[in-house]
Amino acid sequence: MLKNLLAYLKEGNIFNAVEVVGDGILSYHFISVKKRNNELNIVKTASLKSVEEVKKHLSGHTPVYLVLNTESVLTKIIDFQQPNGFSQVNKAFPNLKTDDFFFEVLPSGNNSIVTICRKEDVNNLLKEFTVHNIAVGGFTLGINSIHHILPFVKGTYIELNHQLVEVDNEGFIINVNDITSSENHIYTINGTDIPGKNVLGFSAVLGSILYSDTLLTNSAQVNNTLKEEFLNRRFFSWFFKAALAFLLTLLLINFLVFNYYFTQAENLVQTSEVNKTNRQRLTELDSLVKNKERMVEDVSSASSSKTSFYMDNIASVIPSTLLLNDFDYQPLIKQPKEGEVIELSENMIKIEGTSTNNDDFSTWVETLEKFNWINNVAIMDYDYSGSSSSKFSLQIQLKNE
Fold first, then answer.
1. Which regions span the lipid bilayer (predicted)?
2. Which one in 74, 308, 311, 376 has a CA-CA gap of 20 to 30 Å to 187?
């Protein structure tokens, strides 16, 4: 499981190949293969006319393996084998300047299939794919990639786009003939049907996945560089996406934490402001009460101390959701006229204010009723003045002393 995951992160599970054929006017036979559970399934195939069209068939950072099979690619079969490949090339193409050519030698039984192509032609094609921002994972020449599927193909002939490959009973290539047209036979390889025009592309994909190749070539360094460039490109793409996801997650967490503490701070500020307003209002009410106490000293010599006592006790249990607007100790029974005796409601306190929480208001009333110097608390009025506040009026009957 871990091995498959690492392989997916490294190379992905979509592999593409393009066989380039033609002389002057090139054609591009495209195949896309998906690897899943150690099986290869063809996603799509297409015969295209330009590299730009190839680009449209690619998805994400997936590699393309090139099979160069144009008229500039030359192939010969010789009855000769050596371990380094240069000897076969010199025998097949005497006086060839190998510094100017890429070559591949495929040992096949007693024979060697020698394929060459000018480096300039290969580099020009690679450059064209690079210009279109297509990641090339490697390239191979002529029909040589076909050796990856020979053990799985039944029959003595394999018909490709422009070649007819003859295979002996042991699965070795014994002859390759050029053909002008192809009937596009379907070949079944391990249960997968592959059109003849895409056999070389599929073989190139299979070889890249198996990491096995018996070719003798001077293009190994170039292919390794192409492979490394693709892997680095894919790595940095994954790294960028992972880093971006990490940063976005970090920013989201930071935002949620900041929002939480900001909300808490706002609530504390609001509570502090309410308490400050209540204290200021209580101070104002206290001052007002004291003024009234001085005015009615002739009526009650002890009213000043009593008022402070009652106010302090009542104020000590006021919740932050209540705002007092009036505190009247022994209020006037009626407004006296000039010359009349001032009549007070003895042992009575009248309180008016605003509430933003019904439960807090009810709890406050219940708390007041528990004071041993209060006889009862009567709610005279409780009207809604808005969507979130209510005006109230209380009348507190004090016990006789």
1. 238-262
2. 74
Q: CA 4, CA 124: separation in Å to the nearest integer?
A: 35
User: Which strands form 173-178's sheet, in the order they lie side by side?
Assistant: 157-159, 163-167, 173-178
Segments making up each domain of the chain, as ranges: 2-218, 244-398
161 contact partners, CB below 8 Å, separation of at least 6: 19, 21, 29, 69, 182, 196, 197, 200
* pLDDT given at position 351: 93
* Angstrom distance (rounded) from CA 320 to CA 171: 93
CA 115 to chain CA centroid, nearest Å: 47
If one counts every other C-beta atom within 10 angstroms of the C-beta of residue 332, the result is 14
Distance, CA of 355 to CA of 391 (rounded, Å):
6
Fill in the DSSP letter of residue 344. Answer: B
Q: What is the CATH T-level fold of the domain 244-398, as seen in this structure?
A: Gyrase A; domain 2 (3.30.1360)
Residue 281 in 3-state DSSP?
helix
Residue 365 in tokens: 């009333």
Cα three-residue angle 361-363-366, rounded to 5 degrees: 110
pLDDT tens-place string over residues 286-303: 887 787 667 656 555 555
Q: Is the dihedral of CA 340, 345, 346, 352 positive or negative?
A: negative
pTM for the predicted model, two decimal places: 0.58
What mean pLDDT do residues 56-75 have? 90
**Cβ atoms within 10 Å of 236's Cβ, excluding its own:** 11
